[in-house]
Design goal:
By secondary structure, the protein is mainly α. Helices cover 40% and strands 6% of the residues. The protein is extended, with a radius of gyration of 18 Å.
């Protein structure tokens, strides 16, 4: 399933190569599936593409996760605190909401019973 197309990512990163697109898409899909599992459907729920494109652009714009760099007297500090293939808290909430999972540390979970996690209660023996 394609989360986004190369043309869509090229709007943000005009010099995108096919190899960069393939890697960025694979890493982004891996991060998103790591958060929501196999709940991604085709067609994609609203909200997933915007998160996917933002993560992929971040992967390619700053793959080493540099927060600041200095050359001589010039110092550049990047405003974005998220770097690389990392989902921000907001991105996690948006993805979880898009696929029907609870968005935070709430006791309410609207996931269907057949896919909801089954908690194990610890009892002393």
């Amino acid at each position: 399933m394609a989360l986004f197309s190369a043309a869509e990512l090229r709007v943000l990163l005009p010099r995108l190569t096919d190899a960069q697109y393939d890697l960025a898409h694979e890493l982004t899909e891996d991060a998103i599936r790591g958060e929501v599992g196999d709940r991604l459907t085709d067609p994609m729920p609203p909200g997933v593409k915007s998160v996917a494109v933002a993560v992929a652009a971040r992967v390619l714009a700053n793959p080493q996760g540099v927060r600041s760099e200095q050359a001589g007297g010039m110092l550049v500090t990047y405003a974005d605190t998220q770097t690389g293939v990392v989902l921000s808290d907001d991105e996690r909430r948006r993805l979880r909401r898009a696929v029907g999972l609870s968005g935070g540390a709430s006791m309410l979970d609207i996931a269907p019973a057949d896919v909801a996690p089954h908690p194990t209660v610890w009892r002393p023996t």
